[in-house]
Amino acid sequence: MKILLVDDLERMRNAIKWLLRPKKDFEIVEAENGQQALEKLEQEKFDLLITDYQMPVMDGLNLIKHVLADPQFAGMRIILMSTHPREIFKLQEGVDYCDKNELDKLKDMVKKEAQ
After folding, report:
1. Angstrom distances, CA of residue 7 to CA of 10, 39, 67, 82, 115
2. What are phi and psi of 65, to 5 degrees?
3. Per-residue model confidence as pLDDT tens digits over 1-44
4. Do 31 and 56 touch, CB atoms closer than 8 A?
5. Which in 10, 53, 65, 87 has the greatest CB count within 10 A?
6. Best CA proximity match to 57, nearest among 36, 42, 41, 40
7. Which residues are CB-neighbours of 69 under 8 A, at least 6 positions away?
8. Among candidates 73, 61, 2, 72, which has minimal Cα distance to 34?
9. Are the C-beta atoms of residues 4 and 76 closer than 8 Å to each other?
10. Cα–Cα distance between 86 and 105 in angstroms, integer?
11. For residue 27, what are the β-bridge partners?
12. Residue 47 has what pLDDT?
């Protein structure tokens, strides 16, 4: 499974990579913001997008809007991460949510996507 991990904080990206480390069949590519993620999405095919909500240049919601609007990304699963409560987001079908304060759940979500 090829994962695009988008977060402006390197320590958060490192924590998530560490969390997912036991799975050797995961390839993780990193981006620091939504704009950088879009550029990577144009260059490579990904199975899963994990994105932070708050980032400079382009936030996670705008990134998700671009991805969902583009037919070339149809079928790609998306996980939005935030410390804000899920209820404030109007997430479309195909977009899951993970609280950054409960990252252990992210591992289970990614395992589910890999099946």
Report:
1. 7, 15, 16, 10, 25
2. -60, -45
3. 899 999 999 999 999 998 887 666 789 999 999 999 999 999 99
4. no
5. 53
6. 36
7. none
8. 61
9. no
10. 14
11. 2
12. 93
